[in-house]
Design a protein that fits this description.
By secondary structure, the protein is an alpha/beta fold. 48% of the residues lie in helices and 15% in strands. Strand 3, helix 5 and strand 4 form a beta-alpha-beta unit. Helix 4 runs parallel beside helix 5 and helix 5 crosses helix 6. The longest helix has 20 residues. The chain is globular, with a radius of gyration of 18 Å.
């Protein structure tokens, strides 16, 4: 079974896919070594680690380099946070997708912050390219209605889920939701596997599974937690005037 098929099946098991998000080769290898079934990248983490703000401020070429190195250093399926695709030009978009497929990437997240009309054009362009070239890529459709605080975010999310599924999306990623009733309603409204990010309010994997969530991501949380620990360690060396905290 190829990595795409493996990755697809991980979204259709009895238990949710827990996706830890890496930002470099070492973090990805630690994720793999600790028994996770797949790796995701976090655009926020990669951008921040390279000194960029999140939101496609880093060039696609730099993202691609990090993804290449992660893929070369790991063996489990890899999904890439592609933000909005790093271009509005559909030809360039399919070129970006092909570069990721050539590396061996199993999936992408693609976000709809520009609105559903532009998003559908991008999604359909990607699907057409993949079908014509007989290639597969798991497309996790990220919808940001709640994050962007648009009017009627629940109704819009449910409507977009149908549109995106009809256009070929494989999964639905809804950001900025932590209300159990909302999660249940979205999960029951679609046959797409629902992806959310764990949060302080909803940190229980079992509870999220019971609400119908099929994929739970760490997003930038693992990166932030890791560097918070690094900050504490560095501070202790300075406070103690000793290297003892490092051992």
């Amino acid at each position: 079974m190829g990595n795409y098929e493996t990755f697809y099946q991980l979204h259709h098991k009895k238990t949710p896919l827990i996706l830890a998000n890496a930002w470099n080769v070492k973090s990805a290898q630690i994720i793999e070594q600790n028994g996770y079934d797949a790796i995701g990248t976090s655009s926020g983490a990669i951008s921040n680690s390279l000194g960029y703000e999140d939101g496609e401020k880093m060039p696609f070429s730099e993202l691609l380099y990090i993804v290449q190195r992660i893929k070369a250093g790991t063996n489990i399926p890899l999904s890439v946070d592609l933000e909005r695709g790093y271009t509005n030009n559909l030809t360039e978009l399919t070129e970006n997708i092909q570069r990721l497929v050539d590396i061996g990437v199993s999936g992408i997240n693609l976000e709809d912050a520009q609105g559903e009309e532009i998003y559908l054009k991008k999604l359909e362009s990607i699907k057409n390219h993949l079908e014509k070239s007989n290639q597969k890529l798991f497309i996790n459709a990220r919808t940001d209605g709640f994050l962007l605080k648009i009017d009627s975010p629940l109704e819009t999310t449910i409507k977009r889920a149908k549109l995106y599924q009809d256009a070929g999306a494989d999964g639905l990623f809804v950001t900025a939701i932590s209300d159990a009733a909302t999660i249940k309603e979205i999960a029951s409204s679609t046959t797409l596997p629902l992806n959310i990010v764990g949060s302080p309010k909803l940190s229980s994997i079992q509870a999220l599974s019971e609400y119908g969530v099929r994929r739970i991501s760490m997003a930038v949380l693992l990166y932030k937690a890791s560097y918070n620990q690094l900050g504490k360690l560095i501070k202790e060396v300075n406070n103690q005037q000793s290297f003892e905290p490092l051992f």
